[in-house]
Amino acid sequence: MDKYSTYQTEDFLKDESFINWVLDPEGAGNQAWTTWMNSGPATKEAAQKAIEIIRTLDFKKEAVAGDFYGGLKQRIDHTIAMGQTVPAKRRTIQLSWLKAAAAIAGLILLGWVFFNRKPSYTYFSTPYAAIKTVWLPDSTEVVLNANSSVRYNKNRLNNTREVLITGEAFFKVRHVDINGKAQAFKVYAGNTEIEVLGTEFNVRSTHEATAVMLRAGKVRFSITGSDAEKIMQPNDYCFYNKAQGTISTRTADPVMFTSWMEHKYRFENATIKEVCETLKAYFGYDFILRNDALNTQTVSGTLELQNEQVMWQVLSELFNAKVAKQGNQVVIQ
User: Fold this and answer.
1) Cβ contacts of residue 307 below 8 Å, gap of 6+?
2) Radius of gyration in angstroms for the set of CA atoms belonging to the chain, rounded to a whole number
3) Residue 69, exposed/middle/buried by CB under 10 A (0-12, 13-18, 19+)?
4) Distance separating alpha carbons of residues 238 and 251, to the nearest angstrom
5) What CATH fold (topology level) applies to the domain 263-332?
6) What is each CA distance from 136 to 150, 151, 160, in whole angstroms?
7) What is the pLDDT of residue 97?
8) What is this structure's pTM?
9) Which fold would CATH assign to domain 121-254?
10) Which range, of 152-161, 291-300, 307-316, averages the lowest pLDDT?
């Protein structure tokens, strides 16, 4: 992944493997990109801008005729070729215009590629430090936490209610009857499957684990390709550890796992590492612990997310440590 250390935003937008990862973070072979982003590379900011551009593309729009892109590319190439003979006084202005034109052409071509590769999916996502509520065609409500996404096949949703998520989301599933029979609703998160009829639940999915908190109703939580499954009742919290391949279940207060919808996080006997991982998923910051004694320390409390300055002060008191934000890093010591 060394070559990506010199990439700019437009370079990421042209990279096929990067595009595949943004569209399908859980896909086979995409783990390397997640590892690279988590390592805090120098070009992370440029990559994040590219991610936001890709995620804002609307797959529901009609595709422009294919010959339009070919003609556009020929005109851009011709203009660039002509630019090589531009007089010195005009060269600086001309080169700036050419870069802008090339970037615009690249984004248009990128949109065309996305449309042709995934024409049937509708996709919603959130950037860091933002929450969004969306409604599916069946009137199911989905609240997305920061840096999360949900997508579904718009051509199949009326017959088979299936959605795929990354990150964290809360669902209020609408009960639907077809010919007197309740229609199931399935959520795929990593290699796990949550099947429901009409209910309210929270799902949090990472590369290492998937957690489900059931607030109301009834769901079946299962692992793809495995016999492991759990029929969940209200207030059940299920945690699937991918490395161990097991599902653990306990009773919990749903408020502890859904408070993020009110722009706050509640923690109860959580390790400082767990708190930092939760905040990293929300803000995108890298957290650095410089005091080994903090690794085993547990804390309980509530963090308001909308005022960062106040939040860092509260976090410092909660950890009984110095907390300093330096650029995209948060140093705790």
Assistant:
1) none
2) 23
3) middle
4) 9
5) Phage tail protein beta-alpha-beta fold (3.55.50)
6) 10, 10, 13
7) 47
8) 0.66
9) Jelly Rolls (2.60.120)
10) 152-161
